[in-house]
Amino acid sequence: MARISIRDVAIHAGVSVGTVSNVLNRPNLVAEATRERVQASIGELGFVRNETARQLRQGRGHILGVVLPTMSNPHFTEVGRAAEEAMNADGFDALWCTSDGSRAKEQRCLDFLEEQNVSGVLISPLDLDEDRVAELHGHGLAVVLLDRVGVRVCSVGADHRAGGALAARHLLTRRHRRLLFVTGPLSARPVRERHHGAVRAALNAGLTERDLTTFEQAEMTAAAGQAAAVRLLTLDPLPTGVFCANDLLALGLVNELVRAGVKVPAEISVVGYDDIDLAATAVVPLTTVRQPRAELGRTATELALAETGDPEHHDHRQVVLSPELIVRESA
Amino acid sequence: MARISIRDVAIHAGVSVGTVSNVLNRPNLVAEATRERVQASIGELGFVRNETARQLRQGRGHILGVVLPTMSNPHFTEVGRAAEEAMNADGFDALWCTSDGSRAKEQRCLDFLEEQNVSGVLISPLDLDEDRVAELHGHGLAVVLLDRVGVRVCSVGADHRAGGALAARHLLTRRHRRLLFVTGPLSARPVRERHHGAVRAALNAGLTERDLTTFEQAEMTAAAGQAAAVRLLTLDPLPTGVFCANDLLALGLVNELVRAGVKVPAEISVVGYDDIDLAATAVVPLTTVRQPRAELGRTATELALAETGDPEHHDHRQVVLSPELIVRESA
DNA sequence: GCAAGATCGTGAATCGTTTCAAGGTACGCT
DNA sequence: AGCGTACCTTGAAACGATTCACGATCTTGC
């Protein structure tokens, strides 16, 4: 029942603990015969390295924290997956945390990660707390902000303003003149930027405030999108083009419109954001703004790893990636 | 830059490390004045407990691993979320791992968790490796199987056979006599059981093998569901009732059918499985078999915690929960 | 004024690793 | 024989916390 330690292995193999450790970490220093004997003992006893002790000795674990606002939106889990893959390739592991939309939970995640002695954190913050980030950073953790630029840390994100503009301009080229923007909470910066980008583009194209309506939904889920559709249908005159701040909203909205007998895109066109897998298989395949998810995750990991690798002279980079309009059928 | 340790705090506050530890863990043993002084130093220095060292000393961390086959299916992330909530309530934290459909990755997850010294693991195994489970268990970890019963460990799952039967019987009561079953890989037990349950129910109701078609999709995604729909439409005669092994498949399938001009449920009825959030907001709100997700996760945590609490005389329980048919519009 | 408790604080041992200076052996070379 | 080199192996000192037996100091009661 008691856990097998390196010491047990050493005794069993008739060598010192140092040698067992060498077999584990620098096998080339150990004579072949010895090495095999030790390996055999390891197998026989079912020894599993205690990473906890190893970390303690080594200072920091080979672990990066990943803090996401939710696991229910495939966009985020995919970014995380790409990040994790990149870590694994470098011998690091991911520690996933979810803030679940709560600032308090987000703090708990960060505390947890810091206590767990991770060497860095990739975080998609709800609402950037610069001080907390500085603190983390001061404690020697590499911090990479996802979708948010911060002072004095690395960050990687897509250009949401450009993305919003992309969506709006697409609707405008299709001659839509009455637009509805269905956003999430504007307190969240990426959401706000998508919205501003879209509004700006519309205004630049000669539309006026009166041509624009905004629904600010509390959640960015399909259910919220559905609710938005219901509300949309009470508008008079009806908008002909809708931009949703993410695909989940767009999916719920389109579904409800179709159910109500509205033809998409003939009567109302809809553009989403993110290009999650579900977008392509929707009833009306969704025209949407694709975020370079895999690149986002991968780059975030790279930045974090670069910083942990050489914290001394590391200059923080702000990587901003370009979103891409994916035209399908909904607009 | 160097991490602040309990020793630094002790020096700063002019006490011994033992006292600082007491402030942290048994504050009642420390005089109020001292306690406050230490607390002040902790705040001032920005001390963060090194959970790694604590774990080393204490034997096992207050962490439970959660191994899921994918983060892209909301069903699993929701189960995980419920499990995590229950852990948090008991002072435990969750360590999330994804096997991503690969047996090898699953092994890596388990190795990782064991090295991390977690005190237990909740696992939704791809394909149960009894030996590995026994090994984990032998190493003193509490193991709880999700959706799979195993020998000599706790498990909690829904009754998939009953769920499959529920779905099939619903189609049968609606007078469907030509059924299509769109399943995932039948090598996965829960999938197989859903299928068997459905087939059995159909046969019992007097249908023959010739009335039943099965598509075994490699993935259980909306894209796979879409592909299944395309193939479905080549069938002659067309089935009138379809049971999909999960909601993602069903969603993709329904969407494609609707796109092709097929009326759901009038011409073809579809039943899904899981009742993920998206099911309710689909174009044709999905009739589906709900799994008690929250209860599943919560119960799994409870079982694991019970075992870690008192490993000596703990009898392993096999909890099986009942699925429930949710009738909406698709069938 | 003193013994017996009660109340606090200390310091060393410990958890399982890694690391590294130092010790052994064997071998070849002069 | 003596010495230098290579090659292996050892043992002890960390890492940062917790725990616990033991002192030190203060009360209290007689």
Helix and strand arrangement:
Two copies of one chain form a homodimer.
Chain A: H1 6-13, H2 17-25, H3 32-45, H4 51-58, E1 63-68, H5 74-89, E2 93-98, H6 103-115, E3 120-123, H7 130-138, E4 142-146, E5 154-158, H8 160-173, E6 179-183, H9 189-204, E7 212-216, H10 222-232, E8 241-244, H11 247-259, E9 269-274, H12 277-280, E10 287-290, H13 293-309, E11 318-321, E12 324-326
Parallel strand pairs in A: 1-2, 1-3, 3-4, 4-5, 5-11, 6-7, 6-8, 8-9, 9-10
Antiparallel strand pairs in A: 10-12
Helix pairs in contact in A: 1-2, 1-3, 5-13, 8-9, 10-11
Chain B binds a DNA duplex (30 and 30 nucleotides) through helix 2 and helix 4.
Could you walk me through the main structural features you see in this protein, from its secondary elements to its overall organization?
2 copies of one chain form a homodimer. The first copy, chain A, is an alpha/beta fold. Chain A is built from 13 helices and 12 strands. Chain A has a 6-stranded parallel beta sheet with strand order 2-1-3-4-5-11, with helices on both faces. A 6-stranded mixed beta sheet of chain A has the order 7-6-8-9-10-12, with helices on both faces. In chain A, α12 links the parallel β9 and β10. The mean pLDDT of chain A is 94. The interface between A and B is large, with 56 and 56 residues. Chain B binds a DNA duplex (30 and 30 nucleotides) through residues 3, 5-7, 15-22, 24-25, 29-31, 34, 49-59.
